[in-house]
Write a structure and sequence with these properties.
single chain; alpha/beta; GMP Synthetase, Chain A, domain 3; nine-stranded mixed beta sheet; globular; binds adenosine monophosphate; transmembrane helix
């Protein structure tokens, strides 16, 4: 195994040589002529001129060596359904889906919006897009209609693939009425909507534009659709993520760089070997789902386990039984899930044979020390915290299991991963931070393969948002605070912007504020993220009413609060729901009118906000204090 330092240094000093070697992990139909095109910073183009295809690399390429190995194991504790697909069977299903899409006019470069629950057809649809050279844009099933409409308008899909319903915790969520509302709201009208009918929705919408998948699948049962060979830098997908504005950004990914980066990460970070079984408990609507439920495990010839359900239904032992039953080697989830499991009977963990499990990976939000210690002790296996974001597509910080395995330090996701020129910079001067000094986590140019290529249809936004925020430096900002110790280990200290992280899900406080502002009773609103023992963070809202007199009684206030919470549910989905909505007469702002969200968050977490020389009216803080006191009492 290479030494960590040498390996990392080589990747930064000579990225061309480093990635030329790693590019051998995938099939190139036409070899690339240039490893890296740096002619137009901050844009970087990897493997220029090379032609390849993600679906070919994830599936077709394995048909010779592992045709009968399971590629996908699907388990739903919501419906009781379990299905297995060998690489041969997965290949056939993708071909059927691709043929159906093709018959509906989908072609290379077209966008296909996928709004599906955790069902195998979601995997078929994503890989069918990859096969055809179409660009998938998966929208998390928990998002509501206005969210979906915004993504339809931005991505302008030629096709939407959806299902009658999803299910979570025993509750069925009808999808078709949400799609219907989104289509009514959106300006762009996709010509087709394909429906996977699980026969789960009690009352499925009967709109004429819904095309049933099943008869088409039958019609194209024996179809073979050739892979489109795409230039390495053509887009593979767009995945929307929250930022500081109410308008989510479409993170655009390439084809060749992503394939190479993920295949390499399976070896060097996850130590996943062909034939292993990996269970990533996330959702296809998030980047972890894209990269580590679907693409990376399949690119590397593993079996991937896709799970619909919660970690505690029918009981808190369900995931551990999956490990035993499917001989799972690698598991990947978010710290929130472990905090949920920690509340369960510890005996449940001991009841299953976990001998197949080598490593548990955790990402998406800070891993607190008690949770890390508890699960580490309970499993007796390495726990690998890893830090990254939708934009990067794969980990930036980790103890890399396939390089020299450095000793972990509790509270830190580890050291910079090869390929990432990660530096902590002073927010005001742009100077590098000394060990122990807090700074913004930044990445030098070029970003390694697999990272976002640009913001969909908005190169200017890519430059302005990500590459222009640190003074005197042309670096990519992660918008995370961190601190690095003398050995290079980084600890994450929270966001520099107004993005919050609820149970591993990233949300912009601005989005929630906009949803609340749409309620007629609301004049002004501030939303902040505050620490929560289970979810990492929750959202708290403070609203100023247009007509406070109209809600004078406790009952009227309670009804209003319920109504406001429902407004967020309707506009953004339940994941964005604030834990509490407080009514105040005035919000703390600077004299120039900027909301002092950090001061509010400090009070909500029981900290003092410190000096606020620019505050317009100190009485506003007192209002927030009083509202919080009533909540606590
Ligand atoms: P997302 O793009 O939704 O995956 O969210 C990415 C953000 O989640 C990062 O910018 C961090 O703020 C946070 N995050 C992800 N992984 C970790 C981790 N291992 N430790 C601390 N924060 C994390």
């Amino acid at each position: 195994m290479p030494s960590y330092r040498d390996f990392h240094r080589r990747s930064i000093e000579d990225p061309e040589a480093f990635w030329r070697e790693e590019a051998k992990r995938i099939h190139w139909e036409t070899p690339f002529d240039t490893v890296l095109d740096r002619s137009n910073p901050p844009f970087a183009r990897w493997f220029v001129g090379g032609r390849t295809n993600l679906c070919h690399n994830a599936v077709d390429r394995h048909l010779a060596d592992r045709p009968q190995q399971n590629a996908l194991i699907y388990v739903s504790t919501e419906t009781g359904i379990e299905r297995r697909y060998t690489y041969t069977e997965l290949h056939a299903e993708i071909n059927r889906m691709a043929a159906v899409m093709r018959s509906l006019g989908v072609k290379r470069g077209d966008r296909v919006l996928i709004y599906l629950p955790m069902i195998p057809e979601a995997v078929f649809a994503m890989l069918a897009c990859a096969r055809l050279g179409a660009i998938h844009s998966v929208v998390f099933g928990g998002f509501a209609a206005p969210n979906l409409a915004a993504r339809i308008d931005d991505a302008q899909p030629v096709l939407i693939v959806t299902a009658d319903a999803g299910a979570r915790g025993g509750k069925v969520i009808d999808y078709t009425p949400l799609v219907d509302e989104a289509l009514a709201r959106a300006t762009h009208k996709p010509p087709h909507v394909l429906l996977i009918d699980r026969q789960l929705a009690p009352e499925r919408l009967n709109a004429s534009y819904l095309i049933d998948y099943e008869p088409l699948r039958e019609q194209f049962f024996d179809a073979h659709v050739p892979c489109e060979w795409l230039e390495s830098n053509e887009p593979s997908y767009v995945l929307y993520t929250s930022g500081t504005t109410g308008r989510p950004k479409g993170v655009q990914r390439d084809v060749g760089g992503y394939a190479v980066a993920l295949a390499a990460s399976m070896k060097y970070i996850f130590e996943g070997r062909p034939g292993d079984t990996m269970f990533t408990a996330s959702d296809i609507g998030w980047v972890v789902g894209h990269s580590y439920i679907i693409y990376a495990p399949l690119l590397a010839g593993l079996t991937t386990v896709m799970y619909e359900g919660t970690p505690v239904r029918p009981d808190g032992g369900v995931w551990w039984r999956l490990v035993e039953h499917h001989r799972i080697n690698l598991m990947f989830t978010a710290p929130t899930a472990i905090r949920v499991l920690k509340k369960q009977d510890p005996a449940l963990l001991k009841q299953s044979d976990l001998s197949s499990l080598r490593t548990l990976f955790l990402a998406g939000e800070p891993l607190d020390e008690p949770t890390a210690s508890w699960i580490g002790d309970a499993l007796g296996k390495p726990i690998v915290d890893n830090y990254w974001q939708t934009e990067t597509g794969w980990p930036m910080l980790a103890i890399q299991r396939g390089v020299e395995v450095l000793p972990p330090k509790l509270g830190s996701p580890g050291v910079p991963v090869y390929g990432y020129d990660l530096t902590l910079l002073n927010e005001d001067t742009g100077e590098p931070c000394a060990p122990g000094e807090k700074g913004v986590i930044t990445l030098g140019y070029p970003l390694p393969p697999g990272c976002m290529a640009t913001v969909w249809h908005d190169d200017a936004r890519f430059i302005d948002t990500y590459w222009s925020s640190v003074p005197n430096q042309h670096v990519y900002s992660t918008f995370d605070w961190g601190v690095q110790d003398e050995d290079g280990y980084v600890t994450i200290l929270g966001r520099t912007d107004d993005v919050i992280n609820i149970a591993g899900h990233r949300l912009g406080t601005r989005e929630i504020e906009e949803a609340l502002s749409s309620h007629t009773a609301v004049a002004e609103v501030a939303v902040v993220g505050v620490a929560d023992a289970l979810k990492g963070q929750v959202a708290l809202a403070f609203v100023v009413l247009r007509d406070a007199g109209g809600y004078a009684t406790d009952e009227a206030r309670r009804t209003l609060e319920t109504d406001l919470v429902k407004t967020v549910d309707r506009q953004l989905g339940a994941i964005a729901r604030p834990a509490r909505v407080h009514v105040v007469a005035i919000l703390p702002k600077t004299r120039s009118g900027k909301l002092l969200r950090r001061a509010i968050a400090a009070l909500a977490e029981g900290r003092e906000p410190g000096d606020l020389p620019t505050i317009e009216d100190p009485a506003a803080l007192q209002q927030v204090r009083e509202a919080l006191d009533t909540q606590r009492s």
